[in-house]
Specification:
This protein is of the alpha/beta class. 38% of the residues lie in helices and 27% in strands. Helix 1 runs parallel beside helix 6.
Length: 169
């Protein structure tokens, strides 16, 4: 099962932290790749690549000029398209439709164009209340696949009741 994410409409001046958090959430919860549209951002690419190098992968990041074209290509290659939106149907009712499928998950940025709603196999919501794309992605991915599994990391975080413990691998 391959899971990928498309983050729409990244704006360097406004979204640098939120897009980074979308990417880190995707990685932590099992996605193997994130694409982003909007502004090409080498700082975003470098930040995500450094985390992957330090804590392990596999995880890739790639800019795309055309999100709709990417989704059509993915769909033609057997990927199921899930658009996470507050306007969608309750994701819990559709778990069986998405589990164990190759899937690309679309999360918005600024206003999402109608085409993305139309091309999606499912428009789903973790809640129909305003919230961030980071929280939607985290809840959805945790429910669908739990945690990611990582190899080739140089550092591992060791869970601790108090303090921070990093272990060199």
């Amino acid at each position: 099962m391959a899971i990928e994410v498309l983050r729409l409409n990244h704006r360097i001046a406004r979204d640098k932290r939120i897009s980074t958090h979308v990417a880190l959430t995707a990685r932590a919860f099992g996605a193997g790749k994130i694409y982003y549209s909007g502004d090409k951002d080498s700082n975003l690419d470098n930040s995500v690549n450094k985390i992957t190098e330090k804590f392990g992968g596999p995880f890739k990041i790639e800019h795309t000029e055309n999100g709709i074209k990417l989704l059509k290509e993915k769909n033609n290659n057997g990927f199921f398209i899930v658009h996470l939106t507050v306007y969608g149907k309750d994701f819990k009712k559709y778990q069986n439709k998405v589990k164990n499928k190759n899937m690309i998950i679309v999360v918005g940025g600024e206003k999402v164009e109608r085409e993305f709603y139309d091309i999606a196999d499912l428009n789903l919501s973790v809640t129909n209340q305003p919230h961030s794309e980071v929280s939607s992605l985290a809840v959805f991915l945790y429910d669908v696949c739990g945690y990611g599994k990582f190899k080739d990391g140089k550092i591992k975080i060791v869970g601790s009741a108090k303090g921070k413990i990093l272990k060199q691998i």
